[in-house]
Amino acid sequence: MLTTIIAAIVLLSIIFYQYFRKRNSFFDSLNVKGPTPALLFGNLGEFWGVPIGLKIQQWTQKYGKVYGYYEGGTPVLVTSDLDILHDVFVKQFDSFHGRKLFPLQPNPDDDIMASIFMSRGMRWKRLRTIANPVFSVANLKRLLPTCEVSVDNFMEIMDERCQLGKPFDIHPYYQQLTCDVIARVAFGEERDLQRDPNNPYIELCRELFPPNPKLSKNIWNIFAMILPELRFLAQGAQDLQHKVTGANAWFVLTDKITKIVDERRLEKDGVERNIDFIQLFLEAESEDAKSTTNENKKLELSNMKVTKKLTTQEIVGQLTLFLVAGYDTTSNSLSYITYELATHPEIQEKLRAEIDEVCSGSAEITYEQVSKLKYAEQVIKETLRLYPLASLVQARLCMSSMEAGDKLKQPIPQGLTVAADVWSVHRDKTIWGDDADQFRPERFDEEVQRHPMAWFPFGAGPRICIGLRFTIIEQKIALTRMLQRFVIKKCAETLVPLRLCGAATVCPESVDIVLEPRNDI
Ligand code: HEM
Asked: How far is Cα of residue 432 from the mean position of the Cα atoms in its chain?
């Protein structure tokens, strides 16, 4: 009996060992280099304590512009080659319309709440076609006054911080601001959430973007990464855990937002409201859930017709995503900008001069004024060049085997994830010059012709960030009000250089500054 058990254990060990070895030789078979994977974990262990985007950048320095690593059992091809990136994100979109799959995410093809972000194929096309007009110039103009209300409330808080005259970390305040803005424009929130200790969203949002994710919270995630074939077991275990300990932040948020959408539906006609995303989505709503089924196959964008209808669950899915996407990215961007302005007083002065010239004397900021803030736009672009904070999501799943770029010797196989190393591209001296690591917004002023993939903090191609114009407006309004009133100063507590952390996005550990009132007005 004992001998049989030992023999079985030995046999199983040999089978597992062979299986993991074969799995870890995927890139060898494609003749693609990369960091050596550990038998079970692949290269997961190397992400410990380092944001993934930055680890990938370090590997690029070692292995070059195309290499592969293993996220547990999932091989990921990384590239910073501009032509391959252009093929994957733009030219060959029909073969790369799916995003990288996260280990425990619901199946994007049949999740009834799938957002634009997660969906793919026909379903993505349909959701994107419906959501695009929400961010049209006409709607952005209508949303601008709502944004201003939030920024005015934010300025009151900043006034108080200024009067205290003490250093403080501005990042959590920007998080409150962007959460408030998106809650107003997405689902018509009217309370000032920035001062509300019971803000129903902020802690949930923070939970979804922890600066230093704890292993214990992600145990099922890690299990699913190591054994993707058994992810259904991890999924079941996680569901059970949620039943016992309470749902995770995403589901709590979707519950809250479902209630808001339901209440709005019951609202009588004629209630006066600022325009918001719910309103815009409800106009495109339908009960026809069947119209959402996806055909996860090669897209033929040019021949595709889409039904302009949304189900209630889809509305909730989109709103939850907008809240989460709009909150974290924009607050990080504003924090990085504040750091750069504090450490580059001459750039801050130049930006202030532009703001004074374009916006002086007007109580409200108009869309036309925002559009004239060219230097502000350069400051935002340069910040996002140095800190492409959302690089993790700049990846695609190859939906059908495809040749990409001239430098790959064989087609990219179906099912392989291709990730962009945006940090390396954005700091590449051959693209940006010897001062690539310096903060110099003027570089976006020059008439230099660059490759279309040289700067892409918002992604590229048909799946480029839908909130791009919205976030630029929001950031310009916040910067305008800040510089109209204060001088942002670095202080002994300012971490120079910044320490970066984060998981889903790369964020500054803290941005400690002092606000001084302007003495020239
Ligand atoms: C500084 C601010 C922001 C940055 C850096 C950023 C960055 C990105 C990136 C890199 C992507 C992936 C693009 C790709 O895969 O090619 C993305 C997608 C997306 N973003 Fe943003 N984003 C920002 C703000 C926002 C805001 C304010 C919203 C909504 C209000 C938003 C909504 C979305 C959505 C819905 C997608 C998915 C688009 C699709 O798959 O079709 N983002 N964003």
From this structure: 24
CA of 134 to the centre of ligand 1 (A): 14
The mean per-residue pLDDT over the stretch 277-282 comes to: 86
Q: Which residue has the higher pLDDT, 276 or 447?
A: 276
Radius of gyration of the chain (CA): 24
**Long-range own/partner contacts, residues 305-309 (CB < 8 A, 24 or more apart):** 306/122, 306/125, 306/126, 306/129, 306/130, 307/126, 308/129, 308/130, 308/284, 309/130, 309/284, 309/285
Pick from 127, 181, 458 the residue to mutate for probing ligand 1's pocket: most ligand atoms within 8 Å of its CB.
458
Structure tokens at 451: 């490759």
Any ligand 1 atom below 6 A from CB of 98: no
Model pLDDT, residue 222 = 87
Report the separation in Å between the CA atom of 459 and the middle of ligand 1, taken as the mean of its atom positions.
8
Q: How many angstroms separate the alpha carbon of residue 87 from the centre of ligand 1? A: 20
Interval between CA 106 and ligand 1 midpoint (Å) = 20
Would you tell me how many other CB atoms lie within 10 Å of the CB of residue 183? 28
Confidence check: pLDDT of 288 > 50: no
Q: How far apart are CA 289 and CA 460, in angstroms?
A: 30
Contact 382, 426 (CB under 8 A): no
d(CA 366, CA 27): 53
Tell me the average pLDDT across 363-367: 92
- Establish whether residue 333 lines the binding site of ligand 1, counting it when its CB lies within 6 angstroms of any ligand atom: yes
pLDDT, tens digit (0-9, with 9 covering 90-100), for 20-49: 999 999 999 989 999 999 999 999 999 888
Unique residue bearing structure tokens 């809650």: 183
CB 82 within 8 A of CB 421: no
Q: How confident is the model at residue 286, as a pLDDT?
A: 43
- The pTM of this model reads 0.92
The whole-angstrom separation of Cα 340 and Cα 482 is: 14
Question: Is there a binding annotation on residue 465?
Answer: yes
Does the C-beta of 404 come closer than 6 Å to ligand 1?
A: no
**What tokens does 56 get?**
């990938």
Which atom of ligand 1 is the closest one to the Cα of 388? 5
Q: Report whether residue 88 contacts ligand 1, using a CB cutoff of 6 Å.
A: no
CA distances from 328 to 177, 376, 390, 391, 443 (A): 10, 20, 10, 13, 27
Residue 326 alpha carbon, nearest atom of ligand 1? 27
Helix (H, G, I), strand (E, B) or coil at 514: strand
Structure tokens at 281: 């989505």
351-360 pLDDT, tens per residue? 999 999 999 8
Q: What angle do CA 286, 292, 298 make, to 5 degrees?
A: 145
pLDDT over 60 at 301, yes or no: no
Helix, strand, coil shares, percent, the chain, to 5: 55, 10, 35
Which residues touch 316 (CB under 8 Å, ≥6 apart)?
A: 113, 254, 257, 258, 261
